[in-house]
Amino acid sequence: MLSISHSQIRSMEMVRKRFESFPEAFVKNLVYPQTKRLPFNRQLSQDSQDTDKKYAAMFSPFWNEIIKSLREEDYISNREMDLLSCPSNAGSLGLVQWPLFLLSSKISLAIDLAMDCKDTQGDLWNSICRDEYMAYAVRDCYYSIEKLLCSLIDGEGRLWVERIYREINNSILEGSLIITLSLKKLPVVLKKFTALTGLLLRNEDPDLSKGASKAVYELYEVVTHNLMSPDLREQLDTWNILARARNEGRLFSRIEWPKDTEAKELVKRLHLLLTVKDSAANIPKNLEARRRLEFFTNSLFMDMPSARPVSEIVPFCVFTPYYSETVLYSSSEFQKENKDGISTLFYLQKIFPDEWTNFLERIGWADSTGYAELQKSSSDALELRFWVSYRGQTLARTVRGMMYYRRALMLQSYLEKRSFRVDGYSQGSIPTSQGFELSRESRAQADIKFTYVVSCQIYGQQKQRKAPQAADISLLLQRSTVPTTWVLLINYDAALREASLGCGLCILVLDLRGLVVASATVY
Question: Per the database record, which ranges form the Callose synthase helical domain (predicted)?
């Protein structure tokens, strides 16, 4: 029996407090030793921060898959998913980036401290560092803004960004930040910057491009003439290169809109980091989502054998017995009212109100959407059937849960292969989980190691009489998109009895296409 060698994590508050320790525990207990030898950007210093970043990069794909599954099951909303997801930590930013639910409201609190500061730069930083996540948020915000601005603008505009950051960095080294900057103007600066990120979150068009150029110019004006000290302000105003571009109307005239995934994620993360003001104490709200995250984080500290690669684990098969109970609710079944006038759908909406709201958000409908509107779309009507069945029927929920075994094996195999530098991946890259579900090799490895069989005892009879259970079983297993999910049916063979061979049972194993992959006859 596995034992837990640390104090139990019993609340999301404990999850937040101990989150920094999760990546290291994950790598040490659940990652095959050779997989830990990951290449990293040589520009990063080879110190504890580099190690922490490596651990975070290895931990984040698995954490994010858990968060993704919670969203797919409608336990969390899109906003909660954004706040709970962990950055890949695979970029060139020289610090560990943590999920936003740990950093929410920290920037606004840090600004309040800065505006009230009447002491030295060191005293201000010590006040910020009393909350470790506030210090993380400040560093994350500072370096991310620099990275974003340098990716958006070029020419004289980029020279201005580099000059501003050079002056601020020098003042930090000299301990004169409070003299160099007018900290009371920070709210105005961040207001201008969030106006810019708000535009960049949308798809590019000519009007938005003009708006973004204007927003950057307004940010330039506020930083130069309000945030910087009078001496630096004068130097920047008389800087010939900048003055010429400004007079000719070229300064910030062209914005390089974020197009790649990393740039878009950077914009989104920065916008949330600066705009989310409420506390993360209630994230996630759903109790089942909280329970799963607490269970997972507890498991990271269990005493367990050393991890082995997927290719070396023992293959295993899972059987789920099934006879004739309802597989998926039909529309008529979950709309049927009992003697009290309560339908199954109405009941589930009332006991899972947040999950219903999250479901409507996932399929793109408003909270006030009614049943009749959902029925207008066949895909939405099918999603509704699954939503009700996952909460009201055991088999549907069990099949979905079992498929997480295969998904986990695919992800683990994919990351192991990339860390071993196979499939032509460059040695300078850090493994990420993007595309793991499309990797043929990872799918094949998972199929070798995991097989799932639903043993439907009268499936043949149900199929012959065209019972809804037979069609629903096929639909449920097809939704799992797993070729190694099989239906085991036990069928009474009348021909054997007529041939006076006694009572015969024909056992067939079918794949999702209905083809027999194995059979046996018992006399």
Answer: 99-276
487 beta partners: 454, 510
Q: Is residue 304 part of a domain?
A: no
Q: Which two tokens stand for residue 512?
A: 């999702």
Whether the CB-CB separation of 41 and 92 falls below 8 Å is answered with yes
**107-166, pLDDT tens digit by residue?**
999 998 988 888 888 888 999 999 999 999 999 999 999 999 988 988 888 888 898 999
Q: For the chain, what is the largest distance between any 2 Cα atoms, rounded to a whole number of angstroms? A: 106
146 in a domain, yes or no?
yes
Instruction: Looking at the structure, tell me whether residues 35 and 127 fall in a common domain.
Output: yes
* The predicted structure's pLDDT at residue 235: 83
| Paired strand residues for 519 | 508
Please report whether residue 426 resides in a domain.
no
Least-confidence region, from 91-100, 112-121, 223-232, 501-510: 501-510
- The candidate with the shortest Cα–Cα distance to 273, out of 138, 118, 429, is 138
Question: In the chain, what percentage of residues exceed pLDDT 70?
Answer: 84
Pair (403, 260) in one structural domain: no
Contact 61, 415 (CB under 8 A): yes
481: containing domain? 310-421+432-522
Q: Which amino acid is at 336?
A: K
Instruction: Report pLDDT for 1.
Output: 38
Q: How far apart (Å, rounded) are the C-alpha atoms in residues 57 and 432?
A: 8
pLDDT at 180 over 50: yes
DSSP string, 277-295: -S-STTSS--HHHHHHHHH
Q: Which tokens hold the place of 485?
A: 């999910």
Task: Report CA-CA distances (Å) from 139 to 65, 187, 267, 442.
Answer: 26, 17, 16, 37
387/370 Cα distance (integer angstroms): 15
pTM of the model: 0.83
Q: How far apart are CA 415 and CA 430, in angstroms?
A: 10
Residues 250 and 330 in one domain: no
Of 234, 254, 288, the one marking the end of a domain is: 288
In a domain, 299, yes or no: no
Neighbour order of strands in the sheet with 485-492: 316-322, 450-456, 485-492, 505-510, 516-522
- DSSP 8-state assignment for residue 507: E
Tens of pLDDT, residue by residue over 4-31, are 445 688 888 899 989 999 999 998 888 8
Instruction: Report the number of distinct structural domains present in the chain.
Output: 2
What is residue 148's three-state secondary structure?
Answer: helix
Backbone φ and ψ for 131, nearest 5 degrees, come out as -110, 105
The secondary structure of 409-428 as a DSSP string is HHHHHHHHHHHTT-TT--TT
Cross-strand partners of 228: 181
Q: Is residue 61 located within the same domain as residue 189?
A: yes
